[in-house]
Amino acid sequence: MIKTLFAEIKEYKRDAILAPILVVIEVVLEVSIPFLMSIIIDQGVQNGDLNLVITLGVVMIVVAFAALLAGVMAGRFAARASAGFAKNLRKAMFDNIQNFSFANLDQYSTAGLVTRLMTDVTNVQNSFQILLRIFIRAPLMLIVTMIMIFSLNTQLALIYVGVIIFLGVVLAIIIMSAHPTFKMIFKTYDQLNAATQENINGIRVVKAYVREEHEIDKFRKVSTLIYDLFKKAEAKLVFNQPAMQFSMYSTIILISWLGAKMIVSNRLTTGQLMSMFTYTSTVLISLMLISMVFVIIIMSVASVQRIREVIEETSTLINPKHPIHEITDGSIVFDNVSFGYSNDPSNYNLQNINLKIDSGQTIGIIGGTGSAKTTLVQLIPRLYDVNAGTVFVGGKDVRKYDLEALRNQVSMVLQKNVLFSGTIKENLRWGNPQATDEQIKKACQLAQADEFIQRFPNQYDTHIEQGGNNVSGGQKQRLCIARALLKNPKILILDDSTSAVDTKTDALIRKAFLEEIPDVTKIIIAQRISSIASADQIVVMNDGKINAIGTHEQLLQSNAIYQEVYETQNKGGDVDA
Question: What contacts 24+ positions apart, CB below 8 Å, involve 64-73?
């Protein structure tokens, strides 16, 4: 787990190495100051040796400034290393997410991925910076200080050993009891982000239904839960400070009592006792820092695990060793195909699908909600892999093609139309980054989008807001169709992509397809029979199976499901099935 994350330090290894080295230098210099002070008191002040006092005083000043410089440089290198580490972690996660298949994405919520990219990486960044400085500094200072204490007086050093054992037990109990609560906190952050994202994305619906109070209450509940969990964790961590205070004052009292006796019996000097008092605070501060480090590490362990999951997640779809890059034509064959999202044969979404589509044909697919129409077409560009059977495109198993080559030739307009912030041109060039203005305009004319684009003041340079919120649903659908056409595919799949346009525009789009791209295989999923009535074949889906295949006229004569949809739409004024 740690190895996976530390591999992302990459170009910041030098900073990550220099920071702890400078911390070591800083600690050694700091710890030497009380020792020099004891020499000044015992040999300089008591013997009246002014030269020794001045000499060692200058040395102490130089050592102090050197320690300060080392600390500043250590902080600088640690900050740069931790910020770079966080940058690389986010990039590694984001890059791997781009390789996820739809099946991989189904395992994570959008809010969960955002939390991992932001909150979890920030936690790890802070912990890494602390590791480079405090995690090195505190134990090292404790060890070096204990060496100095033992060199001054072994008997008094045993008091520190007892205090360290006591505090170690207390801190272990605190950390073990607080860890489960912190794990729960970061899981709850996912819920908070999900509630926020859902509200912002659907803010128009919230306002339309006057549900602001409901959303505020939902957000308040999750936010309050996080507050309660933090309060619960802090209630356990709060015992840290009293334990530290108790240990510190107990140590001072014991050293004062025993030290006074030793001075009277000439077993300890005044300078050594003064150094002991200085080392008391150093030891206890080191222990406090160690406890803080462990608390932060405990908090970040959950984040580390969540980040590692994303980085190590392997796509369920991989290229074959020797992929095929050329697709000869747009023919499609489903050979006894079965598929299920859960990989459970008893719960397949598609069962025993057999379907043959010739290149250049127009195929309509119709069926009720949940009949697996979208699932069927998602197998063609290999957005999912079949569980049984084979899908052929251009006479070859889709699993033998290079994924990029396959998806460039199988252009799909998804059921949910997504536009990105940027101009219309920038959005359309997702289909073909090298598309000329003429090619863009031609694709928009085919998709019946050019007409409304020309009415915009900036036409094709019109800025699209995030999610396409400044265009209507029908306009968004037509822009997405144009974007798909720019790929110049051999197969074009429209997944209910004209549901938001009027019947006249729908008819114009179909007419343009017939006249301008006759060699492209077109698969149209629709709820309106008018959208697919002229198709070469119509596939009727029901409960994950093909119920019937035929032309509009044949199905009107022979298929009960198709007849029912047709009659409902005609009697109900073209009502969606």
Answer: 64/29, 64/33, 66/25, 66/29, 67/25, 67/26, 67/29, 67/30, 67/33, 70/22, 70/23, 70/25, 70/26, 70/29, 71/22, 71/23, 71/26, 73/18, 73/22
Question: What b/e sequence results for 434-463 when a residue is b if at least 16 CB atoms lie within 10 Å of its CB, and e otherwise?
Answer: ebeeebbbbbbbbbbbbebbeeeeeebeee
Q: Which DSSP symbol is given to 543?
A: T
Question: Whole-prediction pTM value?
Answer: 0.66
- Provide the b/e sequence for 55-89 (b: ≥16 CB within 10 Å): ebeeebeebeeebeebbebbbebbbbbbebbbebb
pLDDT single digits (tens) 349-397: 888 889 999 988 889 998 888 888 888 988 998 888 888 899 999 889 9
Q: Which domains does the chain have, with CATH numbers?
A: 2-182+238-312 (1.20.1560.10), 332-414+488-571 (3.40.50.300)
- Which among 483, 460, 465 is positioned nearest to 421, based on CA atoms? 465
Contact by Cβ (8 Å): 527, 366: yes
